[in-house]
Design goal:
With 385 residues, the chain is of the alpha/beta class. It has two domains: 111 residues, Roll (Urease, subunit C, domain 1), CATH 2.30.40; 260 residues, Metal-dependent hydrolases (TIM Barrel, Alpha-Beta Barrel). It is 23% helix and 29% strand. The strands form two sheets. Strands 1, 2, 3, 4, 5, 13, 14, 15 and 16 form a nine-stranded mixed beta sheet that branches. A seven-stranded parallel beta sheet has the order 6-7-8-9-10-11-12. Helix 3 runs parallel beside helix 4. It is globular, with a radius of gyration of 20 Å. The model has no long low-confidence stretch (mean pLDDT 95). Bound molecules: zinc ion (ZN).
């Protein structure tokens, strides 16, 4: 007897090359079976997913959910799980001194599964008045190294923005030294060349295979495109070396013009993430599904869009065995989405609005087999007993 059967949806599981009308059976906290016409009598609870997409639980590789501590912090469950994101990576709101509060009050207390990147600056991202890397005294490598040993900390975060007199290369080198010592990857936030104090090439040159560049499609000066709009050679070289490129939409890091040119030149994102925070939540990022919708609008195939928010981030997190796909034995993290047709205005970070004809809208999600949603399951009209 299964606990839950999700019936009749279009199951898209890019890791296994699945895109078909199938049923998903869940036993306890795991996927038990995926197949055609599994018997509804075999389950205690049946969810009717007719007309919906059924995907692995979405994974957002870049969010800020250190609510109450960082000015960027939003509420994890409202903004992640209620919008179809079952696993999220807190991308450096907390530094060594503020991490314990993130762990106890957010990560341990949320239904969304939250992992963290540790900000190389021990204050993390408390306020906006001073950039956390403007003063080298905020970097304490030994302290960061000690805290970053925690298994739920998946890597180090360094924001190359407002680095002041340090210039990006120095704090980045110190962050990479800590990442080396704890044997974990680094995610680097790239900003304008002016705010980094050095050109993008100088940042990329330091990165190791497995490190991630987030905000890869920002439209500010010194972005991944040169003055003619061509992808900079250093960007291609970094990708060839195994550096990953993550969207990190946020409030300032998604420009239609940059993305469109990059896609046309064969530079799709490795991972699609929202960089959801206080200033991007209402607009322009909205949520991960909206960020994914923008790539659908730009012509990226649906399965590739879903892969970039499921299997791809799971692989980078070293968690492919449990999340990011719907193979038997995987965690029963499942997202139900509606692929809507109509006219949908989508705004980038430069204030440019484009109108899409399709939209991915989150309906509900199961986290480890438990239904979580925008409302009670009965009001969604999904639950048939
Ligand atoms: Zn961010």
């Amino acid at each position: 007897m299964y606990d839950t059967l999700i019936r009749g949806g279009r199951v898209i599981d890019p890791l296994h090359g699945v895109d078909a009308l199938l049923d998903v059976a869940i036993q306890g906290e795991r996927v038990a079976a995926v197949g055609a016409n599994l018997s509804p009598q075999s389950a205690r609870q049946v969810l009717d997913a007719t007309g919906l997409l059924v995907t692995p639980g979405l994974i957002d590789l870049h969010v800020h959910v250190h609510w109450g501590v960082s000015h960027y912090g939003i509420e994890a469950d409202q903004c992640c799980l209620a919008r179809g994101v079952t696993t999220a990576l807190e991308a450096g709101s907390a530094g060594a001194y503020t991490y314990p509060s993130l762990k106890r009050w957010i990560m341990d207390a949320s239904q969304t599964e939250v992992y963290a990147l540790l900000n190389i600056a021990y204050l993390g991202m408390i306020g906006d008045q001073v950039g956390e890397l403007e003063d080298a005294r905020f970097i304490d490598e030994a302290l960061a190294e000690r805290v970053a040993q925690a298994p739920e900390i998946l890597g180090i975060k360094a924001r190359m923005d407002r680095v002041g007199p340090l210039k990006a290369t120095e704090p980045l080198a110190r962050a990479l030294a800590v990442a080396d010592r704890v044997d974990k990857p680094l995610m680097v936030h790239i900003g304008s060349a002016r705010r980094m104090g050095v050109p993008l090439e100088a940042v990329l040159a330091q990165l190791r295979p497995g490190d991630v560049v987030t905000h890869c499609y920002h439209g500010k000066d010194g972005n991944i495109l040169d003055a003619e709009g061509a992808v900079r050679p250093a960007v291609r070289q970094a990708r060839q070396r195994g550096v990953l490129f993550d969207v990190g939409h946020g409030a300032g890091s998604f420009a239609w013009a940059t993305v469109r040119r990059a896609l046309a030149q064969g530079l799709p994102p490795d991972t699609i993430s929202s960089d959801l925070h206080t200033y991007s939540l209402l607009s322009p990022a909205v949520d991960l599904a909206t960020t994914m919708t923008k790539f659908l609008h730009l012509g990226m195939p649906l399965a590739d869009v879903i892969r970039a928010a499921t299997a791809a981030p799971a692989a980078w997190m070293g968690m492919s065995a449990s999340v990011g796909h719907l193979g038997p034995g995987a965690a029963a993290d499942v997202t139900l989405l509606r692929l809507e047709e109509g006219r949908f205005d989508l705004c980038d970070c430069e204030g440019v609005v484009e109108t899409a004809s399709r939209r991915l809208a989150p309906v509900t999600a199961l986290k480890r087999g438990r239904l979580f949603g925008l409302g009670p399951a009965s009001s969604l009209g999904l639950l048939t007993l």
